[in-house]
Amino acid sequence: MTTVQSRAEVATEQPVPVRRRRPARQGWAYAAPTAAFVLIFFVIPIGIVARMSVSDWGLFAGYRGINVPENFADVLDDRLFWPAVGFTVKYTLVTTVILLGLALGLALLVQESNRWTGFLRTSFLVPSALGLASASLLFYALYSPQSSPFGEVSFLGTPSSALWSTVALIVWRYSGFYMLLLLVGLQGIPGEVYEAARLDGAGRFQTFWHVTVPLIRSSLALCTILCVTGSLLAFDQFYILTKGGPDNSTITIVQLIYNMAFQGQNNLGRAAALSILVLFGLLVLNIAQFRGLRGKES
Predict the structure, then answer these.
(1) How many other CB atoms are there within 10 angstroms of residue 61's CB atom?
(2) Strands 62-66 and 55-58
(3) Which residues contact 237 (CB under 8 A, 6 or more apart)?
(4) SS3 per residue for the chain
(5) Strand partners, 292
(6) Euclidean distance between CA atoms 273 and 53, whole angstroms
(7) 231 to 51, 67, 89, 279: CA distances (angstroms)
């Protein structure tokens, strides 16, 4: 009897092995689809573009050897490169200022709930459900002299009118989307903060500038990054509305990449080199924006 009890005690004193590999395998299994997606649709294409950028690679001729750094030199010497950069930056600044200002105004307008709030929010948000290409085609018909309800008005005939007509399209399409992002930030501000500001004698403008704006800085930063990145990569709206005209005055940097690859030059190597320059510029700009935001919040 004693021997049986001692064996039972020894058996109970032995530590139970802990299986730790199974959770790790489960984690890898959960992450595998996302990792495969990033690898196939991001890492591999960037590698292919990087190889093209240092190669003599024609659209029809294919790979014809390494020619670094000729592609990058040819891009910088292209007659449309600097005009495209200048116009893209100008378009980005104009669109970002107008779009974010209007979106913030709309968010403040529908911040408080009343009988019209639901209708206004839905009305402002409806254009965001329409694809950019579809919206561009809609505005193209609106601007066309043959179908426009405004008669013989030249919406796309001059560089200035073409720019502002395209900005109007983008503001109409995206203002509701950015309004929604800013509205989330506004509704996250506690009501006690505004009550304390009123007790301290702060007016509406002082409350907005010293209370509202600092507390929605994260939302504003997100909207700014999205708007700047999207504007720098503008293609669909200008390709459909202006084709880069009149006289190449509205050609963007992404349109120039498309033209180098598929129109006129048919040079994939040069287009890839310009794509690498654009990617590098976007990385630097986004890093600067994130650091600026973190510096203000710390």
Answers:
(1) 11
(2) antiparallel
(3) 132, 135, 136, 166, 169, 170
(4) CHHHHHHHHHHHHCCCCCCCHHHHHHHHHHHHHHHHHHHHHHHHHHHHHHHHHCEEEECCCEEEEECCCHHHHHHHHCCCHHHHHHHHHHHHHHHHHHHHHHHHHHHHHCCCCCCCHHHHHHHHHHHHHCCHHHHHHHHHHHHCCCCCCCCCCCCCCCHHHHHHHHHHHHHHHHHHHHHHHHHHHHHCCCHHHHHHHHHCCCCHHHHHHHHHHHHCHHHHHHHHHHHHHHHHCCCHHHHHHCCCCCCCCCCCHHHHHHHHHHCCCCEHHHHHHHHHHHHHHHHHHHHHHHHHHHHHHC
(5) none
(6) 4
(7) 27, 32, 8, 14
Looking at the predicted structure, is the pLDDT value of residue 11 above 60?
Answer: no
d(CA 95, CA 27): 42
> Which pTM does this prediction carry?
0.85
Q: What angle do CA 125, 129, 134 make, to 5 degrees?
A: 125
Mean pLDDT of 258-263: 91
Q: Which two tokens stand for residue 83?
A: 């005009």
Instruction: Give dist(CA 160, CA 279) in Å, integer.
Output: 28
Euclidean distance between CA atoms 177 and 158, whole angstroms = 30
Closest CA to 219 of 174, 176, 188, 192: 188
Q: Which two tokens stand for residue 230?
A: 């999207």
Exposed, middle or buried: residue 135 (CB in 10 Å: 0-12, 13-18, 19+)? buried
Let me know if 44 is exposed, middle or buried by CB neighbors in 10 A (0-12, 13-18, 19+).
exposed
Question: To the nearest whole number, what is the mean pLDDT of the chain?
Answer: 87
Contact 227, 95 (CB under 8 A): yes
Preceding amide of 33 cis, omega within 30? no
pLDDT of residue 235: 94
